[in-house]
Design goal:
single chain; 322 residues; alpha+beta; Immunoglobulin-like; C8orf32 fold; 2 domains; 8-stranded mixed sheet; 7 helices; 24% helix; globular; Papain-like_cys_pep_sf; Bac_transglu_N; protease; Transglutaminase-like
């Protein structure tokens, strides 16, 4: 039973004095049969009172306001979490029956939200991919693994190329992004086949250099498998999310699971730094992870997002080649 010590620091530095910083935090790991929180310490600048409640999706959500004038806000979460490996679904039992079971879920309240998909311009193209990649004789679990592999192979993992505000159309055109983009694309594919899928935020706890997503919050998808339940699928690393993935929250998409978000009064510009360290809490080094980690305020530091800057660079390179 693995035990992980996790330190997650979110630091806002403002260009000038600010006040009335009102924030929502989802930094409290899910507690269930496969994940246990042994200890958690939460330290916030000014020591404001944190009120907590459970949201519609079962996540523990905190809220606080720091009213005093300040130039910096630091939210420091320290965790000790144990996880348990969950058994995988049986692959090949009665595929037709499993698809029939999924049809009945379309009208059941716990699953409706995880089947809805907003339209975007690239959806028809992605629907064609879904039809090409699916196999009629496979179970929903097998299809989910196939789609996971397709996203992993066809999208390039590039930090900073997208932000939390990047649309699905932009991600589809880029064929690149980070963990939250990979998860969103996979969920679109699954929902086209009426497989309930939900977004998960959390941490990946492994020191393998081959695994993407360390040093920041991570994101993946969970798929509902008939006669089994919810199972995590990580398209960023093309694997099942199991005992090395620590879950913070689940929801329809990123906006339901953002670890930190809020508003404040004062100076327009600010700098966001986020660091996540597993096992060694004494070696925290701040790095700018604003684009990889879904934790932003209502006001962003740049007038152009990184997608726009990336496209400008591509256009300039194309012009130079002409």
């Amino acid at each position: 039973m693995p035990e992980f010590k996790i330190q997650h620091i979110t630091k806002y530095t403002y260009e000038g004095p600010v006040r009335d910083s009102a924030n929502q935090i989802i930094l409290f790991p899910i507690k269930d049969d496969y994940q246990e929180v042994i200890k958690q310490e939460l330290n916030i600048t000014g020591n404001p009172v944190v009120d907590t409640h459970t949201d519609y999706y079962g996540n523990e959500v905190g809220s606080f306001t720091y009213s005093n004038q300040h130039n910096m806000l630091v939210i420091n979460s320290k965790l000790v979490v144990t996880t348990r490996q969950r058994p995988l679904p049986v692959n090949d039992i009665f595929p037709e029956q499993q698809w029939e079971d999924l049809k009945r879920l379309q009208y059941m309240v716990p699953y409706i939200d995880f089947l809805k998909q907003e339209y975007f311009e690239g959806l028809p193209e992605l629907q064609e991919v879904v039809e090409q990649e699916r196999r009629k004789d496979e179970t929903p679990f097998q299809v989910a693994l196939r789609f996971c592999g397709w996203v992993y192979k066809n999208f390039e993992y590039i930090k900073g190329v997208t932000t939390v505000e990047t649309t699905l159309d932009e991600v589809w055109k880029l064929r690149a992004g980070v963990c939250q983009d990979f998860a969103h694309i996979l969920m679109v594919m699954l929902r086209q086949l009426k497989i309930p899928s939900r977004y998960v935020s959390g941490y990946i706890c492994t020191h393998s250099s081959a695994m993407r997503g360390e040093g920041a919050t991570h994101a993946w998808a969970e798929v509902y498998v008939p006669d089994y339940g919810w199972l995590g699928i990580d398209p960023t690393n093309n694997c099942v999310a199991n005992e090395t993935h620590v879950r913070l929250a689940v929801g329809r998409n990123f906006s339901d699971c953002s670890p930190v978000k809020g508003v404040y009064k004062g100076a327009y510009g600010h700098k966001l730094e986020v660091s996540v360290v597993v096992d060694d809490a004494d070696t925290i080094v701040f790095e700018d992870k604003a684009h990889e980690t879904p934790a932003v305020h209502a006001v962003t530091e740049f007038s152009k997002n990184s997608y726009q800057r990336y496209m400008e660079i591509i256009q300039q390179q194309q012009q130079q080649q002409q």
